[in-house]
Fold:
Amino acid sequence: MSFQPIDLANPDFLADPYPTYARLRDMGPLLPMAPGVWLVTRHGVADTVLRNPGLGRDFAASAVRRYGPHIMDEPAFRMVGRFLLLMNPPEHTRLRTLLSKAFGVKQAAELRRLAMTEAERLLAKLKGRGTADLVSAFNYPFPIAVICALMNLSQADRPLFERETRALVKVLEITPLNPEELAAANRAAELFEDYFRHLLAARRRAPGADLISLLLRAEEGTDRLSEDEIIANITLLFLAGHETTANMLGNALWSLFRHPAELAPVRADPELIGAAVDESLRYEPSVHIAARTAFRDLSVEGIAVPAGGLIYVNLGAANRDASVYAEPDRFRLDRPSSEPKALAFGGGIHYCLGARLARIELECGLATILLGLPGLRPENPDGLRWKPTLTIRGLETLPVSW
Structure:
């Protein structure tokens, strides 16, 4: 049984894709989208696919399938193809080991201190205004500020990183880029490469305690990261650690605004911020699609998937599966501990390396906004627009007043 392609121009779907996801879950465990391409929407199947060692990443093959054989010659696709999250063992194992040595050095307390410092700095700019679009005034600048602080980058360059990240992240969408979007993504990739190549040379001459200096020193035996590997995965941190977190902040705030009975206790007791983050990651995640390619002929839920077959895992649909979560379409802080954690950060060997940083940023960002602006409320809630994308889900704007 196949299904009609999802219409990303349909405002009803963008406003609430979950009824569509529910219908897809009812249609079967593995839904054919095209020859050799399937979609998974059920939680158990999604978890199994994400952990299956016979399935992994093949970014180049997926890109060629959508764009044609010359797409990997484009600067944006060449750079993204070097990202850790798109590699497989043994290259993935080697890179993750080296990157973890640098990412693991910063302990949670230091990450939280940096995140709170940047959140409070942005809050101080907002307090006297009375109104703002939180997407542009807080949600996007905040994770960029934290990443720049981790790398000890110039504060003056932060708007540049924010703009170029938005252009380059579109390469990860399953819907093809138009020529203008591809040109913008290529410019962003070339800018990142040039900027960080010069920065690496400067940090070699004068190393510090920042993340870039740690990446330059990271080693496993005699193995070290190459310059291209460092540049690609610093860029990945901006894409994965900025775009997803920025949208997740907006999604979490909007979910709480829509559920005042859950928002009130969070405002009254900061200890509930962690539970609010957990439920937001399940209820309205910012990443909805993860792709896996079969390394060999496989059987998934009794369906033959040949080598090279592509499976799209819909994380947003899996996180609302009624066979796993009680009242899946209800936002509730008191989720039973017996329920599994949401599949917001993927699974298996490709579980997000920056998950700890993302969770800390979400907790610090939510706490700062909700407690620092106690009268915060949304303006024109019925007029909000969601981005017309499927892989990344987020609000285009979130006007608020206080």
About this structure: Residues 73-281+331-401 form a domain with the Cytochrome p450 fold (CATH 1.10.630.10). Residues 279 and 333 are 6 Å apart (CA to CA).
